[in-house]
Design goal:
101 residues; mainly alpha; 2 helices
Length: 101
């Protein structure tokens, strides 16, 4: 069984090159090579989970030194500020800072 022939609607196909819009000469070009892969050979999601598990883990682990230090500094600052705020608003904090409760 033979597929139907495609109709040309004025746009260049894979075997021709149109140098400018509106150029209707559509001469065949020499030296233009087009490679395609059969749709039966393409596997877009082959081993996607397995590839992500190993390669993704390796890539994420390589970035840990760059984000763990800022995260630790930020978390330490946050916990220190929360404890200091709780102490300043307590009775002991008011007395130590010379205020009245």
């Amino acid at each position: 069984m033979r597929p139907t022939a495609t109709r040309l609607d004025g746009m260049p196909g894979p075997k021709s090159f149109c140098p400018w819009w509106g150029d209707t000469s559509m001469h065949k070009q020499r030296g233009v090579v087009v490679y395609t892969v059969s749709p039966f050979r393409q596997r877009g999601s082959k081993a996607i989970i397995r590839g992500w598990l190993f390669n993704g883990y390796r890539r994420l682990a390589a970035q840990v030194p760059y984000w763990i230090v800022p995260f630790a500094i930020g978390y330490g600052t946050y916990t220190w500020a929360k404890r200091r705020d709780a102490w300043q608003n307590s009775k002991a904090g008011h007395i130590a800072l010379g205020g009245h409760h």
